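REQUEST ID: PR-0412
SUBMITTED BY: lab tech R.K.
PRIORITY: routine
TASK: structure prediction, single protein chain
INPUT:
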Amino acid sequence: MDHPSSPAEWTRAAGALLGTMRARVPLVHCLTNHVVTNFTANVLLAAGAAPAMIHDPEESSIFAGVASALLVNVGTIEREQAEAMRRAVAAANAAGRPWVLDPVAVGALPLRTHVSSDLSAQRPAMIRGNASEILALAGAGAGGRGVDATEGVDAAADAARALAERTGAAVLVTGPVDLVVAPGGAEPVRVANGVPLLTRVTGVGCSQGALCAALCAAADGDARLAAVAAALLVGIAGERAAHVSERPGSFAVAFLDALDEIDGAAFEAEGKVLA
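STATUS: complete
OUTPUT:
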């Protein structure tokens, strides 16, 4: 299959992938942080996927082989959850299921940094994080201020490429303009959709990781396209929500409504891909 090369081709292909994802209704196993569990489940449901939150190590190792895709988010990691993550990743790989690593706040804190580093070597389909997280995971930075990035997306471009080559994963670096890189010398893709309010609602970024997993489940191995589609979906939904809400509380509800409303035609009409 030919890969998209122009902005119009990217938005068309991403819109088609969104349609495929909704037709398949992938079941996403979310090993995610305690703060965002409910919002992440609602985001998946609004976008057209199905959520499951299974955190017990024994059950996670079973369920990861049943689910369509797996999300590993280390935001509130504890040692028991770390064990569940390791077992789930092994099971997902054995079953041929794609999985996404979200290395939240890596760099300054040892457990999440160690676990994320180990898991990044276990063939994730995609790694999603802000610039500081990607720099830290690549060994080129110390991390940000908790979940907040202290570096710009462009500062992480070389680290993202190196991380993609080392792990074989597509890498989505989030920021005012998202950056998608992939191994094998693929050209980077940037997505300029989004609004500042997206950073003022807890769980938006973490739920994007779950959307990445859902889209990977429908992408038949094209994690780069899944990353672009996830960036477009969250960015356009944020823009639409901001048209009807100016404050974080109502924005969160409007964001869920926008996820439900967006279709492939919206990607083509409103997507801001720089390729």
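NOTES: The chain has one domain: 7-274.
REVIEWED BY: pending
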